[in-house]
Amino acid sequence: MAESVRINLPSELFAPAESSFFEGTIEIPALKAGPDLYSFTKPLSWKVDISNTGDALLVMGTVEGEAVTSCARCLEDVHLDLMGEIEGYFLLSEGTAPEDLDDDEFDVLPPDHILDLEPLIKAALLLEFPYIPLCKDDCKGLCPQCGANLNEGPCGCQKEEEEENFAKNPFAVLKDYRFDEEALNNS
Question: Quick one: average pLDDT of 115-140?
Answer without folding.
Answer: 95
